[in-house]
Amino acid sequence: MTAEQPALHQQFDDPIYRRPYRASPTRLLTYLDCPRRYRFAYLDRPTPTKVPPRAHTVVGVVVHNVLRDFWDLAPGQRTPDAVARSLAAAWSDVGFRDPAHSATWRSRITQEVVEYLRGIDRDIQPRGVERSVNLPVGRALLTGRIDRIDDRGGELVIVDYKTSRKPLDDSAARVSLPLAFYAAAVSRLFRARCVTVELHHVPTGEVIAHEHTDESLDRKLAEADSIVADLIDVDQSYEQQGAASTAFPPRPGPLCRWCDFREHCPEGQAAGPAALPWEGLEPTSA
Ligand code: SF4
Fold first, then answer.
1. From ligand 1's centre to the CA of 114, what distance in Å?
2. pTM of the prediction?
3. Which of 10, 11, 40, 226 is the most buried (most CB within 10 A)?
4. What sequence ranges are listed for the domain PD-(D/E)XK endonuclease-like (predicted)?
5. Atom of ligand 1 nearest to the CA of 271
6. Reported confidence tier of residue 3, pLDDT bands at 50, 70, 90
7. How many domains does the chain have?
């Protein structure tokens, strides 16, 4: 950054950045993971068929919805029974081995969500729940939705729920591009200090936190800006050449077992057998 150039999170004031590329952090990270998958998900139309939802995806969606709706209850109604009712209403058997398997997991997840909520202050209403935000960053308008924004003594804290069965890495909050974007976007939206980001692992209640500095936030936004520059190029390549473009090589690896688009990708199929629909909850040696 030169002395004359505004910081990336301040460039929305600069007229030369007024035709932004709209993108979510997920779009950016999908491209980094696998350019072919990015093409399937964001450029090919109609979108290629995806595999049906897997059990761990269903669990993730249900838990997020229950934790969202929890804050709509009056404080006196925020009880374990209310959580169990909300979870039962949102539950789906899709992706589970059979109804008994689904019922076992519904009971287990209900317990985990109740325990997680026991570990937080349920009387303090968050500043935001599933709050949509956006932030101009260089050539892009980044958009996203934040699980929860806590107000802790006037300081705003980003909370992102995680439902994977795997424990979180200690560095996960520090290196997360979406969390840094959320913090910068919330600072701008509420004109309040927001530098702390937290990952809340619902199955265990573990919290992985990181406190950003202005410099570390700007580094993350510069990373986003750099990925956007690549996306602008590859999108243009797709516009000109369609699926014949060489800008979307497959990147086979462990992710291919879980890829929604693997049936369209011979290289990904060669990387290993598809994961079983419930394998994200109960790993097998398949
Ligand atoms: S199967 Fe693997 S290589 Fe193919 S699109 Fe999916 S992630 Fe990429």
1. 36
2. 0.91
3. 40
4. 22-266
5. 2
6. very low
7. 1
